[in-house]
Amino acid sequence: MDIALQINNLSKAYGKHQVLENISFTVVKGEIFALLGTNGAGKTTTLECLEGIRRYDTGKILINGKLGVQLQSSSLPADITAKEAIMLFAKWQDLEVTDDYFIYLGIKAFLKKQYHQLSTGQKRRLHLAIALLGHPDIIVLDEPTAGLDVEGRNSIHQEIKRLKTQGKTILLASHDMTEVEELCDRIGVLNHGKIVFIGAPDQLHQTMQSKFKLKVRFSKVPRLNEQFEIVSQEQEYYIFETTNLEITLKAIIQLTEEQSIKIMEINTVQPKLEERFLKEVQS
User: To bridge 122 with a disulfide, which of 4, 32, 40, 118 should be the other Cys (CB 3.0-4.6 Å)?
Assistant: First the structure.
């Protein structure tokens, strides 16, 4: 296993407020790893410690390669153009930038616009273009699609996927569970400054106890006993919740046979990762 990033027992406090408490995780080369958590969980502080922006109290950080960083916010001057911003950062790194780079990242159309004139999506693309200068091995993205519309989100998602195909390692901080489920190989869940889970998205599904919803339309209103957990009922429509879909289905079939009722329609819904995650961190 080739390690790209490793954080060991990282802690950070502001006065008596413990923001990070002995967190540890490893990011493997070529993977997309997400730090997932609600606002205030410690995601941005972790990235700032990693990037050298924020001093940490204890712990160790290993970075195995060149780092490119896209911050959640920017302090670029309002009147600087997109091209001037890129050229400024390129000059600091003694890099040459050609038109091919602008075309490749899809930013050529707004290069002459001043920063304050850019849409949120264009700003995100500009920040990403700056982060990718010099072809870094490891790319750190802090809430890269926050505030974007569907088109903007999809555009950034496609770029992240393209970077992965090029062998880049990506550390992504997000509170968007749908985004994480779509993009990431593994997830580290941060809750109140502690890592409470590390694994693949499907492992998170398995780890978090949750219930399936089962929507059934009967031919007539059935007589139900206490073994069924009913969420709602309207005439012959019933919505049940269950942690064991197979047992509940068998019980429903048995009930219909005993009461001479037909099942007219049946649908199952598995809770999304977002629903499970929110239940877990709130518990």
Answer: 118
pLDDT at 161: 95
CATH 3.40.50.300 given to domain 3-207:
yes
Query: How many CB atoms within 10 Å of residue 193?
Result: 22
CA separation for the pair 54, 145 (Å, rounded): 23
Query: Who's near 178: CB < 8 A, 6+ residues apart?
Result: 272, 273, 274
At 242 the three-state DSSP class reads strand
What six digits make up the tokens of 55?
Answer: 């001093």
> Which architecture, in CATH terms, is 212-282?
2-Layer Sandwich (3.30)
pTM for this structure?
Answer: 0.74
pLDDT, position 139: 97
Domain boundaries along the sequence of the chain: 3-207, 212-282
- pLDDT score at 279: 59
> Across the 283 residues of the chain, what is the mean pLDDT of every consecutive 10-residue run?
94 94 96 90 92 95 95 87 95 90 88 95 91 94 87 89 95 87 92 89 70 84 78 77 82 89 84 59 54
CA atoms within 13 A on the CB side of 12: 24
CA atoms within 13 A on the CB side of 116: 4
With a CB cutoff of 8 Å and minimum separation 6, the contacts of 246 are: none
- DSSP track, 60-111: EEEE-S-EEEE-SS----TT-BHHHHHHHHHHHTT----HHHHHHTT-GGGT
Q: In what order do the strands lie in the sheet with 230-234?
A: 230-234, 237-242, 212-218, 263-269
